[in-house]
Specification:
Length: about 650
């Protein structure tokens, strides 16, 4: 008991709580485990997670600190509380004259008035200064008048200690102590998979009996939910709610920069047993309260935007896209000639603001430009490897030319690497995919090349056929690895002395073949009538941009392009729902702590004694006083009381 009630233990526990509070403030809590891996790396993430730093206020050691602080403070109150209460009521009127002379402030006077009158004068003066008095008749005939003021100071010590007990109790009420117990008994297991609700492990469900929680849920417009998700350990738990939330509407306003200005949700709360739902519009810092539950507007996101997509195979000799109707948050299986894939549509953003240059700002009068909607998705192969993409829906202008942007990355920790697909004169991708289909058919390129470059006089058939076969091989190599692949092939297959000469020849032949295929496409489009005509500058630039893209397709991931043809945006509100029965308990404890601190620092306990003793037909007055804070003001007040008693006694 001595250890539990010791000051050293209490200070150590308070320091640990302070450190935990700093960690919980600096380190963002209860985020997705993957986010921590990206930020700190696998090693430190594992270290921090084992210490419970990602969920400090629910960590076992934090709860243990609260328990010990509650016990330590309780022992202290039980042990010292009765003494403080007794001290509040005690006037110490039986203090001996010798003890009075050892008080911080003391003096002795002599008067000639009667003991009865002197006693009345002393009592009146003390009461005038706010002292409560108590008179004690001694055996030697003397009388001691004891005065007490500021007794509530001692109550401050009790209030501060009791408030810590209350705050710790409230903190334990709002902790995940029940979940920790269920986990220890094997009745609780966090879910780590991304699956639908009906596939979540039953041990990952938490019923309405859970005392407290803080979780999130996204609800699309005109949709409802009666569960939310609690981050827990390396996964999540599904918390059942005793009511159903319906998101009737979600609205958002933006600044010119594209940053959210304000967002709000029209909610309906359906409670079993109540005929009418609770209807309320919530926004940031204006939650909906129901009993111990609070529903906050915390975020927003996509609620399952409907998408119509054409999936273009990038290695096909025909332009034959696969039409796909899907939505954000859906997973679509794809069977292709190069393997089976799953496409996970993750997000849709209608606004993507980028800053403009000073010249563009002067021209447009705006500081930012909206690059238009984007769709973010992942393509995952059968081995689990994923490529993440960000595709823009509309073309954007770059250096006076229009491009469709598509970004790819192999890891969320990497930046996107963008391809800029050139738009044709109608600002579409039709020409690009038609040109790509020609390049994907080496035999067709060979036939086009033969038409433009027939066998010259003096060349034998065998040599010409070898040259045509070389064109086919070069086009196949170019489509697989680009110009860089041709260079690597020459370095590996040709003697060093011949490499420069062979490279020049191969690049010349490849360029002729690419140009021939492009001229044939322009002829089919009606831009030119023959391969000998000059082509417009726009089409020349388009050809250069297209070759840049085609040469980079080998690094684009699986050979398919997702073209978003149309969409219907559906927004979702992000709600944070808390159940906090300990909140009011903590508020009460905090208020009690404030009162206790006020009593301790601003209420001074002061005692004053006046001993009246008959001595040789005169009265001897011994005055003594003390202040628990021993401030200079105590001496000033004591001297003033002595002076008043002395003056009144002389007048009497």
């Amino acid at each position: 008991m001595n250890f539990l009630g010791s000051m050293n233990l209490a200070v150590t526990l308070l320091v640990m709580l302070s450190i935990a509070s700093v960690i919980g403030t600096v380190l963002q809590q209860n985020q997705a485990f993957q986010d921590y891996i990206i930020k700190f790396g696998p090693f430190w993430t594992e270290v921090f997670n084992s210490l419970g730093l990602f969920h400090v206020y629910g960590a076992a050691w934090f709860i243990l600190v609260l328990v010990f602080l509650l016990l330590s403070t309780s022992v202290c109150v039980v042990r010292n509380g009765p003494g403080f209460i007794k001290d509040m009521k005690q006037f110490s009127e039986k203090l001996s004259p010798t003890a009075l002379k050892h008080q911080p402030n003391q003096t002795t006077l002599e008067t000639d008035i009667s003991a009865e009158d002197q006693q009345k004068i002393a009592s009146v003066v003390l009461q005038k200064h706010g002292y409560k008095t108590k008179i004690h008749q001694r055996d030697d005939g003397s009388v001691t008048i004891a005065g007490l003021k500021g007794k509530w100071n001692r109550l401050g010590y009790i209030f501060t200690h009791v408030s810590i007990i209350i705050i710790c109790f409230g903190g334990l009420l709002d902790s995940n102590l029940l979940l920790k117990y269920r986990e220890l008994t094997g009745d609780l297991l966090p879910e780590t998979r991304t699956v639908s609700l009906d596939q979540v492990n039953q041990k990952s469900w938490v019923g309405t009996e859970n005392l407290s929680f803080r979780g999130t849920v996204n609800i699309a417009e005109n949709q409802k939910s009666d569960v939310l998700f609690l981050p827990y350990e390396n996964g999540y738990l599904v918390q059942k709610l005793p009511f159903t939330i319906v998101n009737k509407d979600f609205r958002i306003q933006y600044y010119d920069t594209g940053m959210p200005k304000n967002y709000e949700s029209d909610l309906e709360l359906y409670i079993p047993g109540q005929e009418e739902p609770i209807r309320q519009t919530i926004e940031v810092n204006k939650p909906l309260y129901y009993e111990n539950y609070a529903i906050y507007q915390s975020s927003f996101g996509d609620g399952g935007t409907e998408l119509k997509i054409n999936v273009y195979p990038l290695l096909s000799p025909m332009v034959n896209p696969l039409a796909l109707e899907t939505a954000v948050n859906k997973v679509e299986p794809l069977k292709t000639p190069v393997g089976r894939f799953r496409v996970e549509f993750n997000d849709f953003r209608n606004f993507n603001m980028v800053p403009l240059s000073e010249e563009e700002q002067e021209k447009t009068g705006h500081k930012f430009h909206n690059n238009g909607p984007t769709v973010t998705f992942k393509v995952r192969n059968e081995q689990g490897k994923a490529w993440e993409y960000e595709n823009y829906v509309i073309p954007n202008e770059q250096e006076g030319r229009w491009f469709f942007m598509t970004g790819v990355r192999n890891s969320p920790a990497e930046p996107y690497r963008y391809l800029f697909i050139p738009a044709d004169a109608k600002r579409s991708k039709k020409r690009f995919f038609n040109y790509l289909a020609i390049l994907n058919d080496p035999q067709k390129v060979r036939r086009i090349f033969q038409q433009q470059y027939p066998m010259a006089e003096g060349m034998d058939q065998r040599t010409y056929q070898l040259q045509m076969r070389l064109i086919e091989q070069l086009m196949t190599l170019f489509r697989q690895t680009g110009f860089a692949g041709i260079s690597d092939f020459v370095k590996k297959s040709v003697p060093e002395a011949e490499q420069a000469k062979v490279s020049d020849y191969y690049f010349t032949q490849t360029t002729f073949a690419l140009q021939s295929a492009y001229l044939e496409l322009l002829k089919e489009e009606g831009v030119i009538k023959s391969h000998q005509e000059d082509i417009p500058d726009f089409d020349k630039t388009w050809f250069e941009d297209a070759l840049t893209v085609v040469s980079s397709l080998s690094k684009y991931g699986p050979p398919m392009y997702f073209d978003i043809t149309s969409f219907r945006e559906i927004q979702a509100t992000g709600l944070q729902i808390t159940k906090s029965p300990g909140k009011d308990v903590v508020y009460f404890g905090s208020a009690l702590l404030t009162i206790g601190v006020f009593f301790m620092f601003y209420v001074r306990q002061r005692r004053l004694w006046i001993n009246i003793k008959p001595e040789n037909e005169r009265l001897e007055l011994t005055l003594a006083g003390k202040d628990n804070k021993n401030l200079p003001e105590a001496k000033t007040e004591f001297d003033k009381i002595v002076e008043q008693i002395q003056n009144i006694s002389k007048q009497a």
